[in-house]
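hey m, so remember when u said the C-alpha cells were messed up on ur end? i reran from scratch. heres the input so u can diff it against urs
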Amino acid sequence: MQTQKPSVSLIRATSYERETLRESLLTLLEPFGGMAAFVNKGDRVLLKPNLLTGARPGKECTTRPELVYEVAQMVIEAGGKPFLGDSPAFGSAKGVAIANGYASILEELKLPIVDFHGQRYQTVSENFNHLLLSKEAMAADVVINLPKVKSHAQLTLTLGVKNLFGCVPGKMKAWWHMEAGKDANRFGEMLVETAKAINPNLTILDGIIGHDGNGPSNGEPRALGILAAASNVFALDRAMVEILNVPPQQVPTVAASQRLGVCPELADIDFPQLEPDLLKLEDWRLPDKLIPIDFAMPRVIKSTFKHLYIRFIKEPMIAYGRR
C-alpha cells in the first residue's frame, strides 16, 4: 500500500496586520482542508507558542501575538476551545506573554494560559523512557505548535521540533541540559523523542519576521516573509533548513530526526504551494560561535534562583504596579 507523502505548505507573507494575516493563514492551510481538518467541535486545543523570555520585547524572540490571535480565532470558528501553554526558562507563561504584548488577545478572546506541570509518560525510546512531559500538553485533544524561526547559539537553529522542548516543564529543561548536553547527538535525539511523544497535530511556523545571529534571544530581528505549516513537524523543519541554506547535519534536531528515521527526504515531501528553492536565502546569519549545550550544576542552581525570583517576586511586583 502506498503511503501518502508528508506535505509542507509554504507561502510568502509579509504582514502581521490582522486582516492580511488571516488571509495568509487561510491560504496556508487551504491545502490541508483548513483548520476544520484538525479541530473538531468541543476539542481542547493547546496553542504552544515560543514564549522564551519577557526581557527583550520587540526583538522578535517570541511568537507574535497577532499570529496566535488569528490561529485562536480559527480554532474557535472550527468549534474548538483554545488555550495557551508554555514553560519559559525564566518567569511564568502569563508573565512572559504579557511582556510580549499578549494581554489584549488574552482578554479579548478570554484565552486561558497555563504553566506546564510534569508527569511521566512512557516513550518508545529505551534511552529516553524517563521523559517528564507536560500533562497539559499530553491531555489536550489537539496540539498546535507555533514556533518562531530563530538562530540558536547551542543548536544552530530553533524551529518546530525545538519549540516542543517547552513541553518539558520548568527546570527539568536545565536537568536535560546537564544529563544529555555533553553529547549534541544525544541532546538532539532527546528533543526528537520529545516531539514524537507530544506529536503535534499541526505546526504553523512564524517566519514573517525571524531572529537571526546570536539567538535565541541575543540576535536581531530579520524579515523573512515566510509562513509554513505541516502536520509533520520533522518535514517542516527539513524544508526550513533548506530555505535558510543550512546543512541538515549542522542542526542537531534535524540530524537526529534523520538518524532516527522520522525525517523524510526533501524529495519525499509534497509542497502544494511554494517550493523551498523559491524562498531560499543566501545570507541568513547563524551565531558567531556555538556554545556548549551542557549546563554545569552551578549554572542550574543560578538559573533556578533566577526563575524563582522573576516568577514570584518580579512579575507580581510589575502586576501590582499596573493596578
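this time it looks ok to me. DSSP finds eleven helices and eleven strands in the chain. if urs says something different then somethings off w ur setup not the seq
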